Amino acid sequence: MADFVGAVDQGTTSTRFMIFDHGGNEVGRHQLEHQQILPRAGWVEHNPVEIWDRTQTVVRTALNTHSLAASDLVALGITNQRETTVVWDRRTGRPYYNAIVWQDTRTDRIAAALERDGRGEVIRRKAGVPPATYFSAGKIQWILENVDGVRAAAERGTAVFGNTDSWLLWHLTGGTDGGAHVTDPTNASRTMLMNLETLDWDDELLSFFDIPRAMLPRIVASSDPHGYGVTRPSGPFAGPVRITADLGDQQAATVGQVCFAPGEAKNTYGTGNFMLLNTGTEIVRSAAGLLTTVCYQFADQPAVYALEGSIAVTGSAVQWLRDQLKIISSAAQSEDLARQVDDNGGVYFVPAFSGLFAPYWRADARGAIVGLSRYNTDAHIARATLEAICYQSRDVAEAMAQDSGVALECLKVDGGVTVNDLCMQLQADILGVPVSRPVVAETTALGAAYAAGLAVGFWKNTDELRANWHESRRWQPSWSAQQRATGYAGWRKAVGRTLDWVDVA
The domain 4-250: what is its CATH number? Predict the structure, then answer.
C-alpha cells in the first residue's frame, strides 16, 4: 500500500509540493517563487505558464530528492491562491492573458457600478460576498472586454476560465488531451458567481458580468474519490496518482488546523491574512463586513460554511520593506530590526496598497505611514509593519465576534509569518488572547493532503486528524488593557487617514 499523500500548494508568491505521512508529518517538499508582474499602479499579474512550469519542477524535485514515485502516493490534493483568474484556450492550452491576481484593483469601476445600481445586494445575498475587485467575476469581465478575440472564443466554447486550481488540474489530467475542467465549492464561492445555497453557478449572477456559462468549470466536492481524475504519465508525476481533493488555500488551512466544529477559528499569515470561523452547515450572513464562504464539502456530505475576514496586505508589506524600501535584505530581518525599539514611536503603517479588504471594503484607500517625526528610524517602520499585520487581524476578530456572538478565546495561527516570534507576541498583545502555533505551520498544504487522504480512506475520519494536531508554541498577552486600547485607537485613526484617496465612482 502507498504510504504517503501529496499536496500541490499554488500560492501567490510561490508554488510548493509537499508530502505527508499518516501522522501528518512532513516527509518532503520543494518550493519555487514565480514572478510578480506589476504593469502599472494597482495591477498585479502572474504568468500562468510559469506557474505550471514551476509546479512540474517542484513535484519532480521533491519526489526525486526523497526517492519516491507516483506509486508511493495514495492520493493528491490541490490548494491554491483563490480569486486569481486565468482564461485560456482549451484547444491549445495557451492563456489569452496573464493571470489577474486577487490583489489587482483594475476592476474597481466594475465593482462600484454594481454597488451603485443595487446589484451588489443581490451578489451579497446569493454569493455571500460584496462586489469588490478581490473576486474573480470582474476580472473575467475585464478580460472578455479588453483582450482581442476572447469574447468570441468564449461564445464558441473554446475560451475557458479557472482559478489556478482549475488551471493546474486541467494540465495534470491531460490538458489539451482530455484534461478535466473542474473546481470545488470553496474556490467557486470566491467568484461572485456561485449560489451559496445551490452550490452551482447562478444565471442571474452570470448575467451581471455577461459571462457565458460554458466558460466555467464543473463544481465537484472539495474531497471526492472520483471527481478530479488521475495524473497522466506525461506529467510531473510520471505515473497515475488519483487527485481526490481541491480547496482554496484558506479553507485548506482551516482543514489543516482541524477546525471542524462550529466556532473554531484559525488565522493564516501569508501574502495577506485570512481568518476563518467555522459556522457549520448554517449560512451566516455578515453584518460587520465579513465574507460568507464555503469552508469545505466532503464527498456527499452537506457543505460546511464559514465567516471569513480577508486582509489584502500583511506578509507582502514585509516584502515591500525588502524589495521597494530596501531597509531589510530578507523577511527574517524584519524581526531583528523591529526589536531595536521598544514600541512604534507613534508610527502607524496602514498597507492599503490594494485598498482595504475586510471589514472595511474600501477600494478608495491607499497605503499610508503616519505619525512620523525626526525621532523615528527604520526600526520604527519595521515595528509598525509587524503591528499592522496584527491590528488588521484585530479588526477582523472584532467583526467576527459581532457577527457570531462568540468571543475569541485562543487564536490558532499558521503560515510563513508565524516564524516571526515578535509578530506573534504582538498579535497576542493586540488581541488580548493567547496565540497558538501548531508543529506543522504550513497547514495549507496539510489541509489539502488531509482532504485527499480522507477521500480514499487513508484517514478514516476527522477524529484521526485531530489526533495529529500538536501545539508548537503559545504566546500569552503581556500588554495592559490600557496599552491595548490606546494602541488600537491610534490604529483606527491611522486607517481613517487612508480613505478617499482614489476616485473609483
Answer: 3.30.420.40
Tell me if 367 is assigned to a ligand binding site: no
242 is in an annotated binding site: no
Annotated binding residue at 271? Answer: yes
12 known ligand binder: yes
**Cell 489584502 -> residue:** 312
Q: Is 249 annotated as a binding residue?
A: yes
278 is in an annotated binding site: no
Annotated binding-site residue? 83? yes
Residue count of the chain, please give it: 505
Tell me if 429 is assigned to a ligand binding site: no
- Determine if residue 16 is labeled as part of a ligand binding site: yes
24 is in an annotated binding site: no
Question: Is 345 annotated for ligand binding?
Answer: no
Residue 1 above 70 pLDDT? no
Is 134 one of the annotated binding-site residues?
Answer: yes
Is 258-438+470-504 in the same CATH topology as 4-250?
Answer: yes
Report residue 470 as a C-alpha cell: 500538536
pLDDT tens per residue, range 284-342: 888 888 999 999 999 989 999 999 998 989 999 999 999 999 999 998 899 999 999 99
Query: On the CB side of 415, how many CA atoms lie within 13 Å of its CA?
Result: 27
Which residue is it, cell 507516483? 70
CATH topology (fold) of 258-438+470-504: Nucleotidyltransferase; domain 5 (3.30.420)
Domain ranges of the chain: 4-250, 258-438+470-504
Q: What is the dihedral of CA 285, 364, 136, 314, to 10 degrees?
A: -80
